[in-house]
Amino acid sequence: MENNLNNQPAEPMPNMQIPTDNMQASSKKGNSTMWIIVIILVVVVLVAGVYLYMRNQNSGVPTNTPVTTSSTSSLNNLSSELNSADASADNSDLNQLDQDLQTL
Q1: Taking the chain, what is the end-to-end CA distance rounded to the nearest angstrom?
Q2: What is the pLDDT of residues 2-22, one digit of tens each?
Q3: Could you give phi then psi for residue 91, rounded to 5 degrees?
């Protein structure tokens, strides 16, 4: 303290250096790391977008396929069987059920 009062210069502190070059180097390193991360993220987003686009293209509405004649003939056979069935022919079971329900 007396040294400062006598206007004598203070002694520099040992091992006290200003690392200007190291700070610039670490700043550049941090900048390049950030840009690498940004580029990787952009590539990942683009790949995911292309994948989803291609997946949606494949799962679109299926194209109309023409009905084959075997399907048409099967439908005609089923239709004719339904039309030929006599629904009023055997009502005895239904009549019995109806009577049982009426008694409740």
Answers
A1: 116
A2: 555 566 666 656 665 565 555
A3: -105, 10
